[in-house]
Write a sequence for this structure.
């Protein structure tokens, strides 16, 4: 039976699993899903099969995906604490995005602004839907300024706003004229835009780039000034990265957007380097800042102790200072001591166990590092809202077909800033680095790093989850809150990789240790073995009832 | 301070809601639909709505919440959602094989003006609904009402689609339980069974969103009112609607469709509200109240008398949903507690405000509807500091900042378990509510007592 097949996952035919998934689908659905379920094969180092991604969700299919508003307001802007965020629309969207993503933030003093715990909404009613909501939005902005006196206000459009024709950008301009000390900007992140959260990331990047970055000439004190893009401080990840940066001697200018403040965004163009964590949600910003201000970028990963060390080393090499390189090495050595100790303790208990990861636009890739470090293997993985480049690497970008849903999201034309464009490294310096194997603007995608025959599945849905679990019987499954109890009811531990199940941090060195211990707890608990009651284990009757009569 | 920007300076707001004390209709409709056996709720709009509602209900119940979406794109938003719903219906029956699909609208599909009846009829004529299966719907625009009215609308949809008067009047009572927890619904059924009254209850989420762990995922758990049961509600002799906001509409619809008379009661939370329920059930069911129920009532009253000193003149501030608030306020005033303020974001009308004031006294601040939000609630608490707060999980930020104990009630409760399994309804539920209050008040007294007055026996 399935159990016997399980000895090694390489014995399970990925083709058969794929076929059994597609069999049940109506023909049209099967055709589409067939292109989104790929059996991995890496050739010549980085050649992988093409996958269909960033494509419409099939109506009626139990998807994991959310909407553009969630990607814009929830993911990208949500973690910043002093941009006052007003949701323009009926009450629901503002309510559901209120504190639910666990973006931690730590104001420096008690008098610093912190709007993280506040959900502001225009709570549109039927009359405003009929006659237009702009008047109410203006009034709401006035009331918000009276209550909070913020430096900046972001307005987030929900579905009906686009349809009734409210112009949030015009309102923002008008109110900014009235309140010139407040930077007010609007986001056209209506939920129906694009095909997933991803559209909202792009909308957010565009507006923050045009209306916030470059507004303030301030450069933090320090030698090696870095922005981290795409780190959202879920469960305190950014705090751990901040700690490591400081130990190494990097100056973290701004994080987009975990534990961040408006002024750090506004002056981010003054940094020496952009490093990108979550490629999917923020590569736009890195690209645009490079074009306009000349800041180079490369991909890093602070999930996984080895990946963290590798990223730190790369950053040190970029700056090329021998003292920095040495300091980074000594930090890594000191931190790895405890990491290896815990690995050594936990690895024997986790070795050989199997994981599946279906989450986000980066996490399904990044977290494989941590599993590998305790000897666990990833059987199957996929993203919820990523694009082809996140699977296959940035080399495929020129060949990605721009469909109608993507065309609806504005693509900004960016040119070098006349005064402030300043390439951080001279051409010959860049060439020297690159000829030594250093890569910029790089992301090779998830598939190039996964084993042959692993199943790569984009936009996994509930039915496919059931088939995967039935066929592979993984030891742990990673996804989000909607999937959590579906999987656990089936007797498989389920780790949330959006909210971390309300623990963390999992980034950096301390985070790696936390994650090892957490996975050890989950895959080795006896709770799942208690499913059967004693009388279900041995159901034969023992007749005391008869005797007592 | 977590809510450092909240001051006690109350400015009248006309347009801005800060920290809402309600959410939108569709989540209530989704929850109600889960109370039909074999039903898959379907959200007709962008997939973000469905994702948010499933997430919210999952966090609240820590159980699988299955529901589908029409997954609108920009095209669907311009040309209408008919094609998306038809495709959804076809895919859902092919993939998930539910008995029933319960469609609710969203602000997006409402603004577009999709005609649900017409689309469902089209699905029927095109053969997209297999024989014996049903698609029902309700309209839940998010720019009206709240999660409570969404629940009410879906419950009414059940009557409109299923209830039938066959002409054979049965000696059976319908109970519409209101937007309460699965544990509350189970308790209401238990009381009726204990009393020997034959009932039909719908919706019934017990066993669906608090399902047991048996090592297997069940797409459609064993709980829920069956469509046959809901159909038979049209032949019942009477309907008891619990909670006027969540249940009146469906009871009225059943009366006009199937001529089943009804009476609306407050939710049976606390002694007197439970008395009213048991009394009406006794009369309409034609039974005597059994000894077992009298014992439960007596136990509740016993603890009320035993521990009265700890409740007496303690000041409470309450935020939540109107139907719960009415009953809880009555119970707290029976315990001789003082009610400082009562806030709900759900538009509950002047009758609600009047009823609260009648029970709690003229000095109690009551506000419902627009800008009656958690921010305003916090401001009232700052102005008149209570001994205890009642509210959902979001009130924990207030409780921490102001150092006041919190009893979690209503929706959502994201940070504690219990509400799924232990009721607040009925006499047993009254005991549980009282225990929760006492634990908070006595822990506080223990924490704050001087060493010499630290009590062993309380």
């Amino acid at each position: 039976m399935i159990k016997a097949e399980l000895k090694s996952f390489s014995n399970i035919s990925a083709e058969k699993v794929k076929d059994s998934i597609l069999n049940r689908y109506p023909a049209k659905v099967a055709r589409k899903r067939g292109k989104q379920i790929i059996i991995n094969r890496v050739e010549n180092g980085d050649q992988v099969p093409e996958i269909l991604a960033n494509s419409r969700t099939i109506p009626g299919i139990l998807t994991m995906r959310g909407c553009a508003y969630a990607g814009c307001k929830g993911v990208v802007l949500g973690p910043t604490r002093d941009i006052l965020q007003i949701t323009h629309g009926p009450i629901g969207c503002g309510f559901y995005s209120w504190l639910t993503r666990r973006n931690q933030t730590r104001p420096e003093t008690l008098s610093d602004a912190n709007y993280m715990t506040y959900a502001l909404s225009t709570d549109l009613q039927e009359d405003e839907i009929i006659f237009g909501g702009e008047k109410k939005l203006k009034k709401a902005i006035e009331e918000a300024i009276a209550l909070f006196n913020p430096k900046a206000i972001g307005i987030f459009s929900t579905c009906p706003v686009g349809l009734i024709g409210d112009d949030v950008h015009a309102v923002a301009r008008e109110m900014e004229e009235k309140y010139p000390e407040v930077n007010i900007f609007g986001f056209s992140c209506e939920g129906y835009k694009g095909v997933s959260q991803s559209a909202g990331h792009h909308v957010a990047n565009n507006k923050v780039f045009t209306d916030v970055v470059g507004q303030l000439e301030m450069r933090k004190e320090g030698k090696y000034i870095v922005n981290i893009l795409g780190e959202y401080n879920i469960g305190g990840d950014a705090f751990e990265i901040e700690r490591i940066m400081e130990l190494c001697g990097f100056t973290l200018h701004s994080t987009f957007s975990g534990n961040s403040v408006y002024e750090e965004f506004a002056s981010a163009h003054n940094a020496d380097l952009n490093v990108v964590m979550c490629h999917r949600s923020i590569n736009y910003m890195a690209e645009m800042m490079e074009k306009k201000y000349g800041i180079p970028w490369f991909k890093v990963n602070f999930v996984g102790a080895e990946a963290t060390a590798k990223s730190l080393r790369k950053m040190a090499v970029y700056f090329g200072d021998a003292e920095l390189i040495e300091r980074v090495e000594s930090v890594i050595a000191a931190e790895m001591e405890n990491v290896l100790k815990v690995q050594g303790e936990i690895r024997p208990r986790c070795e050989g166990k199997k994981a599946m990861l279906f989450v986000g636009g980066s996490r399904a890739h990044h977290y494989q590092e941590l599993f590998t470090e305790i000897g666990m293997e990833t059987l199957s993985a996929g993203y919820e809202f990523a694009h082809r480049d996140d699977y296959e690497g940035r080399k495929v970008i020129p060949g990605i077909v721009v469909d109608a849903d993507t065309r609806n999201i504005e693509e900004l034309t960016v040119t070098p800033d006349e005064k402030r464009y300043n390439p951080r490294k001279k051409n010959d310096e860049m060439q020297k680095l690159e000829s030594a194997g250093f890569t910029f603007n790089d992301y090779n995608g998830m598939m190039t790093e996964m084993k042959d025959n692993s199943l790569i599945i984009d936009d996994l849905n509930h039915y496919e989850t059931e088939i995967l679990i039935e066929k592979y019987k993984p030891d742990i499954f990673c996804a989000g809150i909607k999937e959590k109890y579906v999987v656990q009811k089936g007797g498989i531990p389920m780790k949330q990789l959006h909210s971390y199940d309300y623990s963390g941090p999992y980034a950096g060195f301390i985070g790696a240790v936390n994650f090892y211990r957490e996975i050890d707890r989950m895959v080795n608990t006896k709770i799942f073995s208690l499913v059967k009651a004693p009388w279900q284990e041995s159901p034969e009757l023992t007749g005391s009832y008869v005797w007592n009569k | 301070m977590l809510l450092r920007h909240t001051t006690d300076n109350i400015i009248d707001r006309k347009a801005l809601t800060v920290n809402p004390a309600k959410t939108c209709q569709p989540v209530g409709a989704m929850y109600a639909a889960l109370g039909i056996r074999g039903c898959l709720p379907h959200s007709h709009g962008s997939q973000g709505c469905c994702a948010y509602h499933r997430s919210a209900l999952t966090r609240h119940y820590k159980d699988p919440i299955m529901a589908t979406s029409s997954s609108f794109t920009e095209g669907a938003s311009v040309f209408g959602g008919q094609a998306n719903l038809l495709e959804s219906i076809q895919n859902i029956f092919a993939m998930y094989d539910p008995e029933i699909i319960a469609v609710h609208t969203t602000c997006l599909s409402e603004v577009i003006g999709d005609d649900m009846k017409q689309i469902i009829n089209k699905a029927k004529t095109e053969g997209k609904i297999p024989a014996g299966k049903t698609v029902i719907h309700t309209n839940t625009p998010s720019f009206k009402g709240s999660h409570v009215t969404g629940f009410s609308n879906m419950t009414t949809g059940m009557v409109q689609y299923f209830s039938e008067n066959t002409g054979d009047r049965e000696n059976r009572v319908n109970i519409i339980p209101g937007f309460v927890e699965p544990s509350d619904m189970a308790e209401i059924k238990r009381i009726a069974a204990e009393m020997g009254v034959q009932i039909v209850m719908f919706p019934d989420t017990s066993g669906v969103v608090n399902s047991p762990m048996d090592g297997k995922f069940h797409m459609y758990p064993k709980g829920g009112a069956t469509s046959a049961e809901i159909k038979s509600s049209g032949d019942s002799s009477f309907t008891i609607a619990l909670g006027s906001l969540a249940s009146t509409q469906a009871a009225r619809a059943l009366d006009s469709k199937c001529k089943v008379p009804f009476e609306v009661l407050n939710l049976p939370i606390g002694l007197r509200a439970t008395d009213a329920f048991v009394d009406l059930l006794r009369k309409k069911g034609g039974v005597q109240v059994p000894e077992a129920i009298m014992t439960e009532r007596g136990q509740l009253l016993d603890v009320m008398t035993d521990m009265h000193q700890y409740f007496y003149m303690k000041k409470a501030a309450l935020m939540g949903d109107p139907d719960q608030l009415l009953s809880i306020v009555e119970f707290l005033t029976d315990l001789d507690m003082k009610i400082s303020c009562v806030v709900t974001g759900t538009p509950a009308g002047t009758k609600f405000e009047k009823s609260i004031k009648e029970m709690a006294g003229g000095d109690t601040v009551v506000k419902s509807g627009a800008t009656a939000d958690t921010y305003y609630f916090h401001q009232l608490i700052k102005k008149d500091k209570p001994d205890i707060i009642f509210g959902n999980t979001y009130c924990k930020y207030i409780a921490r900042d102001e150092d006041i104990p919190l009893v979690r009630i209503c929706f959502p409760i994201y940070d504690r378990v219990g509400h799924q399994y232990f009721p607040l309804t009925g006499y047993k539920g009254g005991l549980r509510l009282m225990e929760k209050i006492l634990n908070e008040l006595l822990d506080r007294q223990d924490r704050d007592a001087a060493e010499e007055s630290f009590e062993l026996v309380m």
In short: Chain A has 24 helices and 14 strands. Chain A touches chain B through 91 residues (CB under 8 Å).
